[in-house]
Fold this sequence. Notes:
The complex is a heterodimer. Chain A is of the alpha/beta class.
Amino acid sequence: MTVLCLVELDPDGGSADASLRALTFSRELAASEAQAGSAADGTAGSPAQPLADSPSPAPPATRTMSHRPAGNPHDVTSTGYVAAGVFAPETAVPAAALSAYGVTDAYAVESEQMTGYVPLAWARALAELVTLSSATAVVAAATDHGNEVLAHLAAMLGLPMAANCASAARTADGTYRIVRHRWAGSLLEDAVLDASPALLTVAVDAVAAAPATEPAPIVVHDFRPVLSDGDLAVRATESAERAGGVSLATARVVVGGGRGVGGPDGFGALEELAGLLGGVLGVSRVVTSQGWRPHEQQVGQTGTRISPELYLACGISGAIQHMAGCMSARHIVAVNTDPDAPILAHADYAVIGDLNQVIPALVTALRARAGLS
Amino acid sequence: MEILVCVKRVPMVGGKVVVTPDGQDVDTRMSGFTVSPHEECAVEEAVRITGRLGGTVTVLTLGSPEAADQLRDMLALGAGHGVLLETDGREWGPIATAAAIAAAVRRRAAGPAGPYDLLLFGNEAADTGDYQVPVRVAHALGLPCVTGIKNLQITESGGAAGSEAAAAAGAGAVGRAGAGAAAVGGAGAGAAAAAVAGAGAGAAAVGGAGAGAGAGAVSVAGAGAASVAGAVGVARASREYRGSTEVFDLVLPAVISVREGINLPRYPSLPGRLRAKRAVIERFQPEYRGEGLRKQLLRVPAGQTRRAEVLGTGADAVPALVRLFEEFGVLS
């Protein structure tokens, strides 16, 4: 019972936060697999399975791939196994971090033919790892890469894939009970997934990253997939990172403008306010659909997801597609003329009034406070 | 350039989403329907490409008979043909949906209208967010694929000659300019890193690939690409990912899913609306297939709603706002 998790690396070499969340999800799934497996076998705690008696059995300190007993019932522990697929050289695998998240086997997937991101080749390699590690489930973060690679894997294996899951657990009958996001998390779907291996991506905001209670003994394996030319046909050439500026996705303060701004010329005061707060401007979909501001500034389901300390939403009614993009904000403050606007059901605080009066007055007050004028 | 764009009819959801009493669907009694935003951009992109290169845009949806409304909305934007894969209104899963779309693509290739050169999708449907139909269609047809695209440049190869050369080389395998592999493109094709083989030299490049030398042969899932089209051009597609830009080169025919922001869709013109109203929509009835991921219940997440404390009215509330910002620690 192994859950195989695709781990993406950050440019600095660590595991991406989304992948740590996916690993946390994988660990919980593996534990449910172990329990469901024991229950289904009816052998939990039996002398024939000494490992199942131990609360936190230590896997053998050194294990190589050839020692993996595929389908061996002795592999069923109370925690299950989490394996990680990392598309990087063995030396670049963040073994300590993976161990802290409960990973017992990390596969460093390498190939001379495969440099950078090659979606189909990554899926092919994962398919080979599924066989090698006897994985009962494959998990990835619901990022562009995670969703794309798992979709390829699903198509390749002819299996269903559950995208954007918030939770998953194996049941005694061998199926998976899952909760997944619809409408970018504005709606939840309870579903049953009946497939092996189960293919799941983890909704980015759904699970908090949490290390295991104790680090797992980890073995890093070098893994060289067998790839065809067709697997390598579509590959990413990466350009240099974009230069400077505070990004909308990571800004500490976002000042939002919606339909209530009234037109393309009304964003000056909001931008000045954002500047005074050390933040950036974000806008609703109406604003980008009207061409008032570029799409890069859109907050929401089809734009950018933000998670600032403060989101000040001005003249934004609060459609669910917009709220899906800002629900991770620590504090939401709305400025709206309509006391019944849907956004008031999502905000912590509100000012009822016209943003064209409130914002300039707020700018004046903050400038005075900063001794600017 | 013959382009297929696949769209999905979804509820027009506003301030809140309401579930039907049986928990199986979004309650749409008080709302209209629309197409997913990414897909509207895919239609706009297709109309711009054919506006530049010639050809026709076909828009396809799988859904209830009422989904014809969404096809007409897209026809009003400039799409030329509408295809409705008509269902009884049940929700179809991504495996069955992709299979039905792939069958429609093959059917078209076998008919007088000939194959599509480019299949465009939205990155994910607004409602179910499955992220996988385009990838599954690509696998079913043996086509290269990339998703989540925010910028797309299509370059045609040397017209009919290019197509024939690739077709003659067989099985839809087309030359791709890899490291140092020479492929001769039609006018303009050289601008993209991957160049589709043109007339004479093209056959040589493709032959080389078949022999295992030179350019890599493109056949994602074996043969089958030939059922869609010969080599007709290249696509350079890019997207932002975690702060950097990823650029992909694909040989057409290919499957590409796009994101909102790739363009700003036009408003339908009056002549466009009139044409859309009169347009004949082709209808097929694919057979429903259940799959391994089964919806049990839809529900609105609990505890998401806060209730805003009103700080005041108009500019009078500014001092309270400043105090609040101080409390949040966002003022220096």
